[in-house]
């Protein structure tokens, strides 16, 4: 699957985009430097740097293809069911992992998705299933 095909995956809703940006702004690697987004402000006004861009899929095969493709910009992300993965290193493979609990997003992991898929695809699939099933406390303790 080409980058063009991957980027043709649907964007998240504006409401979800706003929630993910707010959570990412809490992360030192993802936050726009010296830019505190105030409630009601559109985060995209801070476009002097790479903007946040999130797509979504419910297909595990497409999720794996996304990460195998590699070379994603910082702040690009993908939502898979109740998980969100946001690239923390421009062109790298270090993904902030968030899990949705109701309307809250909880950051709990930094995960090298492409490397794990390349080394052990079945481990990646198992980890994803565990991330989706684990209670919040287990995620915070890395006991998933």
Describe, in short, the structure shown.
The chain contains six helices and five strands; from the N terminus they run H-H-E-H-E-E-E-E-H-H-H.
Descriptive notes:
With 144 residues, the protein is of the alpha+beta class. The protein is 35% helix and 21% strand. The chain has 6 helices and 5 strands; from the N terminus they run ααβαββββααα. Strands 1-2-3-4-5 form a 5-stranded mixed β-sheet, with helices on both faces. A hairpin with a 2-residue loop joins strand 2 (76-80) and strand 3. Helix 3 crosses helix 4 and helix 4 crosses helix 5 (121-133). The model has no long low-confidence stretch (mean pLDDT 88).
Average pLDDT: 88
Number of strands: 5
Q: Unreliable segments (pLDDT under 50, ≥5 consecutive)?
A: none
- Principal-axes geometry comes out as globular
The major sheet is characterized as: 5 strands, mixed
Side-by-side strand order of the widest sheet: 1-2-3-4-5
């Amino acid at each position: 699957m080409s980058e063009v095909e991957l980027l043709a995956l649907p964007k998240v809703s504006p409401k979800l985009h706003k929630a993910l940006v707010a959570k990412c702004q809490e992360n030192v690697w993802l936050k726009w430097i010296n830019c505190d987004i105030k409630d009601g402000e559109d985060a995209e006004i801070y476009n002097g740097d790479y903007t946040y861009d999130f797509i979504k899929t419910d297909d595990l095969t497409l999720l794996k293809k996304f990460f195998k493709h590699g070379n994603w910009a910082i702040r690009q992300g993908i939502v898979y069911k109740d998980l969100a993965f946001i690239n923390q290193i421009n062109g790298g493979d270090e993904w902030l992992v968030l899990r949705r609990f109701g309307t809250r997003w909880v950051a709990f992991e930094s995960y090298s998705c492409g490397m794990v898929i390349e080394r052990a695809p079945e481990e990646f699939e198992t980890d994803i299933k565990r991330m989706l099933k684990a209670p919040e406390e287990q995620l915070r303790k890395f006991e998933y």
